[in-house]
Amino acid sequence: MTTTNSHNRLRKVCIGVSLSIALAASSIGMFDNSNTAFAATASTTKSVARQTTADQIIATGLRLQGVPYEFGAEAGRSSSFDCSSFTQYIFAQNNITLPRSSTQQSTAGTFVARSQLQPGDLVFFYSPIHHVAVYIGDGKILHTFGEGGVTVTDLNAGWWDEHYTTARHVLSVSAN
C-alpha cells in the first residue's frame, strides 16, 4: 500500500468522523429542555474523546501497513507482528494497555454486538479465539496475518464474515 493511499484512507476516516461530530453537535440544538441538552452535551463530549482516541489508534495502525506478519512476534517490536502483538502495540502507542494474547484481549473491556461496532473496537475470530483485529469503520478491519502483513480487510465478506466470533469495546472502559 502506498503512502498516498494510506493518507487518502486516513483523510476519508477523518472526514467521516468530522461529519459525525457535526451531525451530533447539530442535534443538540433540537432539545428545548436545558437539562436534556446538558446530558446530550456530556454524552457527545465523551463520544468525541473516544473517537479521537480511536482515530489515533487507527492512524497508528494504518502507518504500519505492509509490516510483515510473524507468528509469535515479540511484543513491543514494530519490525513484524502477529495479530495480538499488533493490536497491543498500536493501542500502547496511544497509552492504552492491552493483554498480550488474542484470547486475553477477548476478555478486556466490555462486549459489543456486531451491529454496534465502533472504530477502535477489537474484533475476534475462530472458536476458540486466536485472531484479533481492530474495527476501523465502514465494515473494515485493520489487522495482520499471512503474507500481506498489516492490512485492511472487509469484515463482511468471505472468511472473515463466516469466522467472526465476538467484539469488545476497550476504549470506553479505558477512557472512564
UniProtKB/TrEMBL annotation:
Naturally occurring in which organism (per UniProt): Paenibacillus monticola
Tagged with keyword ATP-binding: no
UniProt record similarity statement: Belongs to the peptidase C40 family.
Keywords for this protein: Hydrolase, Protease, Signal, Thiol protease
Alphabetized Gene3D superfamilies for the sequence: endopeptidase domain like (from Nostoc punctiforme)
Coiled coil: none
Pfam families reported in the protein's UniProt record: NLPC_P60
Protein name as annotated: NlpC/P60 family protein
Top-rank taxon: Bacteria
Keyword Hydrolase recorded: yes
Entry GO MF terms: cysteine-type peptidase activity
InterPro entries documented for this protein: NLP_P60_dom, Papain-like_cys_pep_sf, Peptidase_C40
Domain NlpC/P60, chain residue ranges per copy: 51-171
Lineage of source species: Bacteria, Bacillati, Bacillota, Bacilli, Bacillales
